[in-house]
Write a structure and sequence with these properties.
Layout lengths: L1 H31 L4 H26 L3 H26 L2 E2 L2 H22 L3 E2 L1 H32 L6 H24 L5 H33 L3 H26 L7 H22 L2 E2 L9 H19 L4 E2 L1 H21 L1
Antiparallel strand pairs: 1-4, 2-3
Helix pairs in contact: 1-2, 1-7, 2-3, 2-5, 2-6, 2-7, 2-8, 2-9, 3-8, 3-9, 3-10, 3-11, 4-9, 4-10, 5-6, 5-9, 7-8, 10-11
């Protein structure tokens, strides 16, 4: 039993460092090829931060552990908002951009509802997986278009005076570009092309091997304690794949250098549903053992929807989640964990 716990920790470590190496190598390679920081952030970094969930779910699907695949995504999305965002806001109030309220959260809710509809027949087919994965392509293109437009405004503002409204948009665009460049600097600059490629290879190997070790250990633990695949996916696996975001957010808040973006967490949730579930279903159709309603998975989906809606309700006034809002989100996560343990 202790061996499985050690293997579980090793699996999480490989996932974490594999994702770090993959992002670092790919971001530097893209930079050396002349790709702009904003595009790198929307593609390489976005993929890297969701790589643990993606690989774990695909490996679970291939192994016939479909409830771990689905539970990982649903649990990670709940964890990202209720635990990660809740802990960060409890330590330091967080202010979001207007676009989060007007565009990002409604989009996340719409995609979550679409996943719920697809799951009602207790199966996510390959065709449905294709529609989900096509959605992440459209989502990336849309974000690229928005970022390219804002970057263009920033460049135009630097050469001539503009109207007051355009000045505001350009200032936001300059801030966006600056944040993307700062994010690249934090990742670390590597000039050597062979080192960049080596990091990418090591990163891919890390997340793939880590996912396999994690799934194998989780299955043994599941059998030992007699708990369900769903419980393992919604708790241990989901929390483990969200630990990097949690650690980063809490440390930043404690240092009062809180630059966490609610938009990034929401984008991660959208990416999880569209690309992770989509890719897993394309590799192998995802059945829901026991039925979507009979297994109780419908309640986990409803919790995901409720938790996704809460930031929108908390930020409607001044676009800020205060400590009280962060505490409410943490209480939701604690209550949900209590519910899972009670119904195990």
């Amino acid at each position: 039993m202790w061996l499985q716990v050690v293997l579980l920790i090793v699996g999480f470590a490989l996932l974490y460092y594999g994702a770090e190496w993959l992002v670092k190598g790919a971001a530097n390679l893209a930079r050396s090829l002349g790709v702009t920081p904003v595009v790198i952030g929307l593609t390489v970094v976005a993929f890297g931060t969701s790589a643990p969930e993606l690989v774990v779910s695909v490996v679970s699907s291939l192994a016939g552990k479909s409830m771990i695949a689905v539970g990982n995504v649903v649990g990670s999305n709940i964890c990202n908002i209720a635990l990660v965002l809740g802990a960060a806001a409890f330590l330091m109030p967080i202010t979001a951009d207007k676009s989060v309220i007007r565009r990002d959260i409604p989009l996340m809710l719409g995609i979550s509802i679409y996943l719920l509809i697809l799951s009602m027949d207790s199966r996510i087919t390959r065709i449905e997986g294709v529609t989900l994965f096509a959605g992440v392509i459209l989502y990336t293109v849309f974000n690229y278009y928005i970022s390219a437009r804002e970057t263009r405004l920033a460049r135009e503002a630097s050469v001539r005076e503009t109207s007051a409204r355009k000045d505001t948009e350009a200032a936001h665009a300059r801030e966006l570009v600056a944040e993307a460049e700062e994010e690249l600097e934090e990742i670390g600059i590597i000039e050597s092309r062979p080192k960049q490629i080596l990091l990418i290879i090591l990163g891919i190997a890390g997340v793939v091997i880590g996912a396999q070790v994690l799934i194998d250990a989780a299955v043994v633990i599941m059998k030992t304690f007699g708990v369900s695949e769903k419980f393992i996916g919604l708790t241990i696996v989901a929390l483990g794949t969200s630990l990097p975001e949690l650690a980063t957010s809490v440390v930043a808040a404690l240092r009062k250098e809180m630059d966490i973006s609610i938009g990034n967490l929401i984008g991660s949730n959208v990416f999880n549903i569209l690309s992770v579930i989509g890719a897993a279903a394309i590799v192998r159709p995802i059945p829901i053992p026991g039925g979507f309603f009979e297994s109780g998975l419908v309640y986990d989906y409803l919790v995901m929807l409720l938790v996704s809606l809460l930031p929108w309700l908390l930020m409607r006034g001044d676009y800020t989640i205060r400590r009280s809002g962060g505490f409410l989100l943490l209480c939701c996560y604690a209550g949900y964990m209590g519910y899972l343990v009670y119904t195990v």
